[in-house]
Amino acid sequence: MLPNPAVLSIGELNRRARQILESNFPLLWVCGEVSNLTRAASGHVYFSLKDKNAQVRCVMFRSRAQVLPWRLENGQQVEAQVLVSLYEARGDFQLNVEAMRRAGLGQLFEAFARLKARLEQEGLFEPERKRVLPLYPRRIGIVSSPQAAAVRDVLTTLARRAPHIPVVLYPTLVQGELAGAGIAAAIEIANRRQECDVLIVARGGGSIEDLWAFNEEISARAIADSAIPVVSGVGHETDFTIADFAADLRAATPTAAAELVSVGWFAVRRELAALQDGLQTSVRQQLESRMQKVDLLAHRLISPQQRLQQSEQTVQLLFGRMRHAMHDLLRTRGTQLADRRLSLQRNSPKLAVQHGQVQLLAQRLDNAMQQRLQAQRAGCERLGTALSHLNPDATLARGYSIVRDAAGNIVSSSRQLRAGDRIGLRFGEGSARGHIDCTE
After folding, report:
1. Cα–Cα distance between 207 and 238 in angstroms, integer?
2. Domain 10-103 falls under CATH 3.40.50.10540
3. Chain Cα centroid distance, residue 317
4. Consecutive 10-residue runs of the chain (440 residues): their mean pLDDT?
5. Which of 189, 156, 194 is nearest to 171 (CA)?
6. Residue 169's closest CA among 185, 191, 187, 146?
7. Beta bridge mates, 50
8. Spatial distance between the Cα atoms of 134 and 132, rounded to a whole number of angstroms
9. What CATH topology corresponds to 136-261?
10. Which strand (E) or helix (H) includes residue 46?
11. Which of 65, 146, 164, 201 is the most exposed place for a label (fewest CB within 10 A)?
């Protein structure tokens, strides 16, 4: 009789079985078709992998499922990196999926690495082959599909940074079996036409299969042999293709490619904008300074009306002074004459003779007074004539007019007016209003 062996609980049995499986099977890759796919509320994904001979239950926990770059669906052929395990609670044999890729990607990566190594050994990616992009391209070419979102991104960026530069699209497929040859043909057409200074080969992001046309040898050699500098803007920042290594410059995205080819024009536009701002500031400062100077001169300028008033006042003052002087002179001379007449009457025994002399002197005095009055009158007339010449009404009567702006200020130069300003006109007879069509 053998001693009674230890009795294991079901939980202990499953735990030991799980440990044995996990310790004896390293992390490995398996392939199969996805079936019985379910997504739990926790974010975990449960499914089965099967082939024509068998199937196995799998679980992909939330932390791994979140980084899967595509949506897992039933019927997909996949390659999964798994840990062989056992779900203790139910005793189910299962695979814990750590990573996953679509079936065949391993071969694609190998083909990518082999082609890259061979072309690199040929010197196709040597820095000496790379050409400097033109700083100010006169026309930019795009090799891509007209329906691709990448084309819209490139056109939007170029319209924002260099809107004056024409863009030529060389349409081609960018995905599928014929895409590689199509890309090469589009690049050849661009080189034959010689109408662009730089080419952008563009496509949005995707899986390695989606981008495989840019990993084909025919497209890589067309890019490397192009006489026109080529910028590769394929995929997202983390995507690398053979086209990136063959191109003269690799951009992280199609938008970044558009920024690289327009960097010169964009810098010139910014510099011109800065110069324009400086010029506007300088012109504005000059105008403000000149306007202040005009205001200062306007305060010092005497209008014709004010000058006429001053002349009028001067004439009136002179006329008053002359009239008082004449009265004083006549009174003085009359007094002197009376004194002399009295003296003569007292001292001259020949009154008749003296009386005749007095009459003669009186006549001479009267003549002198008349001549003096005529001279003074002629002077007043000359002053009146000069005054009438200064009268603006006389000037207006000869066909001239006085122009005033909307504020009532006299306009003496067309620089004071702008198109559309309202003006007032005063003529020799009457006045009128109008507006300015243009100034010269």
Report:
1. 11
2. no
3. 68
4. 71 90 89 91 93 92 87 87 91 92 69 83 86 91 91 92 92 89 93 94 81 88 92 80 89 90 85 82 80 75 76 86 87 86 73 75 89 89 80 76 86 82 84 82
5. 189
6. 146
7. 33, 55
8. 6
9. Rossmann fold (3.40.50)
10. strand 45-50
11. 164
Question: Distance between CA atoms of 330 and 320, rounded to whole angstroms?
Answer: 15
| Calpha distance 150→201 (Å, rounded) | 10
DSSP strands (E only) in 363-429: 402-405, 422-426
Check if the beta carbon of residue 229 is closer than 8 Å to that of residue 131.
yes
| Cα atoms in the Cβ-side hemisphere of radius 13 Å centred on 269 | 14
Q: Which amino acid is at 102?
A: R
Number of Cβ within 10 Å of residue 222's Cβ equals 25
Structure token digits, residue 17 = 């079985």
CA neighbor of 167 nearest in space, from 153, 179, 178 = 153
| Euclidean distance between CA atoms 421 and 80, whole angstroms | 82
Q: How far is CA 177 from CA 111, 188, 300, in A?
A: 15, 19, 88
> pLDDT, tens digit, for every residue of 91-113?
899 999 998 888 765 666 777 77
Backbone dihedral region for residue 73 (phi beyond 0: left; psi -120 to 50: alpha; all else: beta)? beta
Angstrom distances, CA of residue 239 to CA of 11, 145, 207, 400: 47, 19, 9, 83
Q: How far apart are CA 155 and CA 162, in angstroms?
A: 10
Which of 229, 221, 39 is closest to 125 using CA atoms?
221
**CA angle 257-259-264, nearest 5°?**
125
The Cα–Cα gap between 204 and 153 comes to 9
Could you tell me the CA-to-CA distances from 41 to 44, 45, 57, 70, 337 in Å, in that order? 7, 9, 19, 19, 141
Strand order in the sheet with 422-426: 402-405, 422-426, 431-435
Looking at residue 315, its pLDDT comes to 86
Contact indicator for 303, 411 with CB cutoff of 8 Å:
no
Residue with tokens 């000869």: 398
In this structure, the strands spanning 230-234 and 249-250 are parallel
Single-letter residue type at 41: A
Q: What is the DSSP string of 272-301?
A: HHHHHHHHHHHHHHHHHHHHHHHHHHHHHP
